[in-house]
Design brief:
The complex is a heterodimer of chains A (246) and B (481). By secondary structure, chain A is an alpha/beta fold. Helix content of chain A is 39%, strand content 29%. Chain A has one domain: P-loop containing nucleotide triphosphate hydrolases (Rossmann fold, 3-Layer(aba) Sandwich), CATH 3.40.50. Chain A is built from 10 helices and 12 strands. Chain B has a domain of 311 residues. In chain B, strands 5, 6, 8, 10, 11, 13, 15, 16, 18, 20 and 22 form an 11-stranded mixed sheet that branches. Chain B has a 10-stranded mixed sheet with strand order 4-3-7-9-12-14-17-19-21-23. The chains are: A alpha/beta (246), B alpha/beta (481).
Chain lengths: 246, 481
């Protein structure tokens, strides 16, 4: 469903991705690991269409079409979701209203009728319950004053509401205590389905113990240095990146 | 005429219409000529001459955080009236809408204001002012039946001279400040409203100001009197053609509420702001707006959405004389390009148990400068006075500035004042976050900016809230990303 071929990208004048090749099929969960600065977050942002990054070479096809030709909002309505490593705060924008706008943008793209606030509320309430979040979050401003853990859980909530076909989760596990990590992992496992794919970007084995990946890739210097099954993650946990990259 | 839709500022077109002017420059003769052109009564000529005398003794204020080249007051035309179809030059009032030149009606149509019988807004009565002259006031008869007077100030001087004489200059004295003195000497037209006792005005009242002549200043004068127990909601809108010259707009607005009366005054200001890169042209918006809560438990509420003008210098204020009276100021000031705004309010607490609320939202982008300046003053006799002030600034980009100058002067120990302030930024990351959820850029900017301003937009009359939402998003579209 997603094919990345020889992808090169830079921010300003600094090349960060130097020829990524990756194919993800429906139903698969891939983990992307790698040392700091290896380009993991950049890869996620390039897939989502962040305007600060320039693709200089290569291609990304999504469901057979050229993904790079689309603005970020059309990638999103086309089924791609990025769970941010550092979700931004947007004061004054109500969380529930924001989710409804996003949900309706997706429905609109599919040619479905948009939902009114009252129609959307029950769906949101169900998802909030599933994410084990407090209902007051719906009425708060988007991420404003949320703790690090609350922000990450809010990302998972958004994912479950928007029901993308591909979820890119950028270090959704970092900064979580063990209870929150379990809740987030439960959210991801519930979301996991044969018609959806997930890319987990993570530093830690502990998430991969809870959400078992089909493939593990190690990024180094903007390229995929090595790939394997989940035993690769275990080796990294035991011996460090140096060992597997050597 | 340029195509309004092709310009970034879509109201930047001008209308080719023959104008009657008094030429450039300011002198006692010009003041007398303005008064004579309109057959004004003696009291008004005396008022003007006194103001002109004081104006000559005053100096242009320089304390505001705005920067502009010296204004040549002799290069400005102080009177510009579109020539009417059949009337002699100099005479510029219209007995009916049929006398109004078609170009002018078309101008207002283009601005979305229909003055003709068929298409005009059902719930809103509009007074349309074109340069120095009021063109038409709609829904006159329906208002008349309710006892409400809503007409141009020129008309009011003719028909209700006693009311005008009683209140004109009573809230903003002629020598209050430099620009108020100038206005008092040369003011041309504007709106007059009187709401009789225990009457709720059956319609929203609205004045639409249009500067067309790019050489003329606009000096309108608005006077609204809400008698005992009455209520009115009033809205003003403003646009001007795009011009490389600066146009001076020095208006005075005076509001008076007697016992238990309420005036809600809303402004959506979108004067031409000048070239966003060079700063060439644009309106100097030097306006004095003040409300006098004269009666007990009376209430004046200012709401402003300021999105235009090269320079805005404006402090809609409330003088809370009546015991238990309430003053409110809700403001959104958006600056982009090279705009400069120094705006805020004064809440002067004189009566007992007076209350005031100030909510100010400043948004600055590009190379603009945005200042909130406010004064809360509690007089010694204002037992139990209360004020709540909230000032928030949003910065878009790294080259703009936002500043806040809240002045407080408390002379009664029982007063309670609260002040909250914040500064935030609208960042590329916020925009990307919303876009990455499928929300298109334009809607994303709208959501963020309107979210920031929601406390103010919520108090705008419904008809205009939607317009303000769109205007704010539109203005920032080119400043982000």
């Amino acid at each position: 469903m997603l094919t990345i071929t020889n992808l090169h990208a830079r921010v300003d004048d600094t090349p960060i991705l130097n020829g990524i090749d990756l194919h993800i099929a429906t139903g698969e969960v891939h983990a992307i690991m790698g040392p700091n600065g290896s380009g993991k977050s950049t890869l996620a942002k390039v897939i989502a269409g962040h305007p600060a990054y320039t693709v200089t070479e290569g291609s990304i096809t999504w469901k057979g079409a050229d993904l790079l030709a689309l603005p970020p909002e059309e990638r999103a309505t086309g089924g791609i979701f990025l769970g941010f490593q550092y979700p931004v705060e947007v004061p004054g924008v109500n969380n529930a209203e924001f989710l409804r706008l996003a949900y309706n943008a997706r429905r609109k793209a599919r040619g479905e009728a948009e939902l009114k606030t009252a129609e959307f509320a029950p769906l949101l309430a169900t998802r909030i319950r599933q994410a084990k979040m407090d209902v007051v979050f719906a009425e708060r401003d988007l991420n404003a004053g949320f703790s690090g853990g609350q922000k990450k859980r809010n990302e998972i909530l958004q994912m479950t509401v928007l029901e993308p076909e591909l979820a890119l989760l950028d270090e959704t596990d970092s900064g979580l205590d063990i209870d929150a990590l379990k809740i987030v992992a439960d959210g991801i496992n519930t979301f996991r389905r044969a018609d959806r794919a997930i890319i987990l970007i993570t530093h830690y084995q502990r998430l991969l113990d809870l959400v078992r990946p089909d493939r593990v890739h190690v990024l180094a210097k903007g390229r995929i240095a090595t790939s394997g099954d989940r035993t690769l993650a275990e080796r990294i946990e035991a011996d460090g990146f140096e060992a597997v990259l050597a | 005429m340029s195509d309004p839709d092709q310009d970034a500022y879509k109201y930047g077109f001008s209308t080719a219409v023959e104008a009657v002017t008094l030429g450039r420059g300011l002198s006692e003769e010009v003041v007398r000529a303005i008064s004579a052109a309109r057959n004004e009564p003696a009291f008004l000529l005396a008022f003007r001459l006194k103001a002109f005398k004081r104006f000559q003794q005053m100096e242009e204020p320089d304390w505001a955080s705005v920067d502009y080249p010296t204004i040549d007051y002799q290069a400005i035309q102080y009177y510009s009236a579109p020539k009417s179809k059949d009337k002699a030059a100099g005479e510029a009032t219209y007995a009916s809408i049929d006398d109004v030149p078609k170009e002018i009606l078309e101008t207002f149509e283009k601005l979305g204001i229909s003055l003709g019988e068929q298409k005009r807004l059902a719930g809103v009565a509009i007074d349309a002012v074109f340069d120095s002259v009021s063109i038409a006031t709609t829904h006159q008869s329906r208002l008349f039946d309710a006892g409400v007077i809503f007409c141009s100030i020129q008309e009011a001087v003719r028909q209700f001279p006693a009311l005008v004489e009683r209140w004109l200059g009573k809230v903003v004295p002629i020598a209050d400040n430099y620009f108020a003195a100038l206005n008092s000497a040369v003011f041309s037209d504007g709106s007059f409203v009187y709401i009789p006792p225990y009457t709720k005005c059956p319609l929203e009242l609205s004045t639409y100001f249009r500067i067309n002549n790019t050489d003329s200043g606009q000096f309108e004068r608005t006077l609204i009197i809400a008698d005992v127990g009455s209520q009115v909601s009033y809205l003003e809108g403003c646009t001007a053609p795009q011009s490389s010259k600066h146009q001076l707009h020095a208006a005075v607005v005076e509001l008076v509420t007697l016992d238990d009366a309420t005036i809600k005054y809303s402004t959506v200001q979108n004067w031409y702001a000048g070239d966003p890169i060079t700063g060439e042209g644009g309106v100097y918006n030097f306006v004095t707006k003040r409300g006098l809560c004269k009666g007990a438990r009376s209430h004046i509420s200012w709401t402003q959405v300021e999105t235009g003008s090269a320079i805005t210098w404006k402090y809609p204020s409330c003088i809370l004389v009546g015991d238990g009276s309430i003053g409110e100021f809700y403001s959104v000031a958006l600056t982009n390009g090279r705009m400069q705004a120094d705006t805020g309010t004064k809440m002067i607490h004189i009566g007992r148990d007076t209350r005031s609320t100030i909510v100010s939202k400043g948004i600055s982008a590009d190379y603009s400068s945005n200042v909130y300046r406010g004064l809360v003053q509690i007089h010694p006799q204002a037992e139990g006075a209360r004020n709540y002030t909230q000032c928030d600034s949003m910065l878009v980009g790294k080259t703009c500035t936002a500043r806040t100058y809240p002045y407080v002067d408390v002379q009664n120990p029982s007063a309670r004042l609260e002040h909250e302030a914040s500064t935030s930024t609208l960042s590329e990351e916020q925009l990307f976050y919303l876009r990455s959820r499928g929300i298109p850029q334009e809607e994303a900017i709208g959501a963020i900016v309107n979210g920031f301003c929601k406390d103010v937009l919520a108090v705008l009359p419904l008809e205009f809230a939607a317009e303000a939402h769109k205007l704010l998003a539109l203005k920032l579209e080119n400043s982000v990303g």
